[in-house]
């Protein structure tokens, strides 16, 4: 329906399959469940650190809002370009599982690096960059494995289930962090060690249960043979295709609309004067909403179209920012803000990749997804720094109002950009 003016022969094979009807009965494939399990365990580890990091940096090390914005941006965006490298290597050598596994292992080792960094902000920034390097390397190969393990018409459901499992880990991670802090007397080092152990378990699960997935048949269209290695020229050629180029540009614009979880939770903590010990539970509220909504929203996206769902998700983000600057306070603010923030993630995280999947040829699927994620991550880095600067210069309330206005403007531009690629036919997917 949107974004694609190219034919579909280069997507999933359509050869007759006597077992296809039987497989459709299952919600998703076994490979998606295995990848979801890996993400669940990894997110327990990652969210343990993410939940306490704003406290550690802002209250423990006394970082300014601008300095925190830089560190927060690094946490997601500084190694963004390596996403493309990881995607290209995975496509060229057709070893998506191997590349993803290296990314998961790198992030696990980085958790121990936080122990060695001590109170040095530059060292902490470097360790965070290594952790995000691991995430950058693994994200595109993992998502490509999901698309190659799922029929095109069910991608929204598959990503919804995967992100739901992922969000279970995000839900549990802060709870584990709080439990560790209560058990050992608010020791951040204990959180980092526990996080490493959990991350190592995720690597073991990936090695044992996730299967490498390759296209079942060569493509029938003109172009490089299916058994030849992917070249850099093909990657540049992908960006010359109008649907893919618009998608990457739109992803970058949408990344500029996101200020980051740490800022959202710090604003809530300041407004409601929450105890620092219970600060990590704010992430639990977001993850709970994400957990409950991810799969239903993925199914809805397959039925009504993925672009309207993504647009609705960013609209929920804009309303969240307005709530943080509005007159509502107390429990109504906490419940509404966290529910809408979880809705934003449920409607955008996996659905945006599902939107991209059918636009991208199988041969360059991992690289194309990496380009989309890189555009978002680089824009997020810029957005985090700018929001930290705005907070420091104008105060948190003015800064969040500007962020809400930015979401509205970017959403309008993005809708106009992607609508140009809309097909006149009545298909609902992508």
Describe the structure.
The protein has 430 residues and is an all-alpha fold. The chain has one domain: Up-down Bundle (Growth Hormone, Chain: A). Helices cover 76% and strands 0% of the residues. It is built from 16 helices and no strands. The protein has helices at residues 20-25, 30-60, 65-77, 81-93, 96-117, 121-148, 155-184, 188-209, 232-240, 242-256, 261-272, 281-304, 306-325, 330-356, 365-394, 396-419. It is globular, with a radius of gyration of 21 Å. The model is unreliable at 1-25, 217-223 and 421-430 (pLDDT under 50).
Topology:
Blueprint: H1 20-25, H2 30-60, H3 65-77, H4 81-93, H5 96-117, H6 121-148, H7 155-184, H8 188-209, H9 232-240, H10 242-256, H11 261-272, H12 281-304, H13 306-325, H14 330-356, H15 365-394, H16 396-419
Quick summary of this structure?
The chain is mostly helical and 430 residues long. It contains 16 helices and no strands.
Instruction: Give the overall shape, derived from the CA principal axes.
Output: globular
The overall strand count is 0
CATH first level? Mainly Alpha
Would you tell me the overall average pLDDT?
Answer: 79
Structural class by sheet pairing and helices: mainly alpha
CATH homologous superfamily label: MFS general substrate transporter like domains
What is the helical fraction, as a range of percent? Answer: over 70%
Strand content: under 5%
Q: State the major sheet.
A: none
- Secondary-structure element string: HHHHHHHHHHHHHHHH
What's the tally of helices? 16
The domain count comes to 1
Cα(first) to Cα(last) distance is 6 Å
Radius of gyration, taken over Cα atoms and rounded to an integer in Å: 21 Å
